[in-house]
Specification:
Layout lengths: L14 H4 L2 H23 L6 H21 L3 H12 L10 H18 L3 H20 L10 E8 L9 H7 E12 L4 E10 L5 H11 L5 E4 L9
Helix pairs in contact: 2-3, 2-5, 2-6, 3-4, 3-5, 5-6, 7-8
Length: 230
């Protein structure tokens, strides 16, 4: 087992002097393979773009090269850090899974750059197994799916509490989140976040609401997806 946690490039202090062609090729090959595995982990049951997946697959090799070059050399490490500080990343922030996948790719590159191929392989396997486990189970899933109910009312309707009776009959919980005017101010639009008591009651609820709002427009659907943050 100790071999898995040993560096193929030697100790950290002597890494710069012990990098061999065979060792470098083994590290590069491991970075390519593990980068591909990391990209496949990211793609599992997740929306993705080809450019981002390719970047994830190649990022471990790039990081590995940088770490191999500066390993054991303080001056080179400071110089590389200064160069990276000059780069401004203007890309749009991604989801929590995007950021986590980038960190995984960088961790693989750091490990292989120092020669710890076994550590990088174990890390990739552990993350991949638990990623599949969490995605395929109900872990982290909201307890109940809420829906966005939009009710259009005429200008002369006192909407405060006008729909509470119907909503109490068909929903477990409801909350008025927003009130806005529409159609040049002649109509009001109420936005409720509701949790239905059970599936299949949507039509009955909308039919009763139509009788109260003058048969104006009513919509019921999923709320706008919130951007995931890490």
């Amino acid at each position: 087992m100790d071999i898995l946690f040993s560096s193929v490039l030697g100790t950290t202090e002597s890494a710069m002097t012990t990098v061999t062609t065979a060792g470098f090729m083994w590290c590069t090959l491991a970075s390519i393979v593990l980068g591909l595995v990391g990209a496949l982990i990211y793609m599992y049951k997740h929306d993705y773009s080809k450019n981002f997946v390719i970047t994830l697959a190649l990022l471990p090799v790039i990081v590995q090269m940088v770490i191999t070059l500066v390993n054991g050399n303080l001056g080179a490490g400071v110089a590389v850090m200064g160069v990276f500080n000059l780069v401004r990343f203007r890309s749009i922030a991604g989801t929590a899974k995007d950021i986590g996948s980038v960190f995984l790719a960088m961790a693989i590159g750091l490990a292989t750059g120092m020669g710890y191929i076994g550590v990088a392989a174990i890390l990739t396997v552990v993350v991949g197994v638990f990623n599949i486990l969490y995605v395929t189970t109900s872990f982290g899933q909201p307890r109940e799916a809420s829906k966005l109910l939009k009710i259009t009312t005429p200008e002369d309707l006192e909407f405060e509490g006008a729909f509470d009776g119907v909503l109490e009959s068909y929903t477990r919980s409801y909350e008025l989140e927003n009130v806005s005017t529409t159609n040049m101010g002649s109509l009001y639009q109420l936005e409720y976040r509701v949790a239905m008591k059970e599936a299949g009651l949507e039509k009955s609820m909308i039919d009763e609401l139509r009788c109260l709002n003058g048969n104006l427009k009513i919509s019921l659907g999923s709320p706008k997806a919130r951007r995931e943050q890490l």
